[in-house]
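Pipeline run #58 for the internal structure catalog. This entry was flagged by the ingest filter as a single-chain record with no existing model, so it goes straight to prediction. Upstream metadata was stripped on purpose; only the residue string is passed forward. Reviewer on rotation: M.T. Logging verbosity set to normal.
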Amino acid sequence: MYRDKKVVVVLPAYNAARTLHDTVREIPFELVDELVLVDDDSKDNTIEVAHRLGIKHIIKHEQNKGYGANQKTCYNKALELGADIIVMLHPDYQYTPLLLHAMISMIGNGVYPVVFGSRILGKGARRGGMPVYKYFSNRILTFVQNVLLNQHLSEYHTGYRAFSREVLKRVNYVANADGFIFDNEIVAQIFHCGYEIAEITCPTKYFPEASSIRFLQSMKYGFGVLRVSLLYFLNKTGVFHWKRLTNRSA
């Protein structure tokens, strides 16, 4: 618990057997009440390792549904468990769990309702081995997104995210895509609801076991990002009504 708020860390897993132990050992369990691991039909023994580590809430997709679908299952379970603060932490050990203290406290103290760990603030991305093409693609896409969404984030593409319960109960994340573009759709929904997103500097690691989308997937993702940003802009200007921006409570 943090200030009487229940904290649940969700782990969207795919072939994470080799890195799951390193991830879990750094989680500050003096703050975190529950872990939820959702396995998206891994081809390795991720489930076996998760059981060995004592993770209580393990959900397995019987077929690979995609990164967005994995997050939906994660958030649904966290809310079902009564989480007040939900943190998505990739179990591939690309992001350090040591930042959970800062992210949880910012939400738990009511400073911000959403916190992202940014690889771009500071020099963490390139120092950690982010490929050059990914770095510059990230910068270009983020610039366009900031213009169309009228925001000032350093990046929209991090996988290290913390949310208050209120945010996930309000935004219609279950209507989003099941693939990687889910990440950008939920950001658009958060801003549409009037919430602010805080960012903290996050070092990152790129190594063979760390999950990453391939070049062709990255191209598809990039065009999807532009589409999401344009739809948000058109919705905001009243030219087009984008149904995914309809709140769950509506």
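catalog note: The two ends are 31 Å apart (CA to CA).
catalog note: The chain has a mean pLDDT of 92.
status: ready for reviewer M.T.
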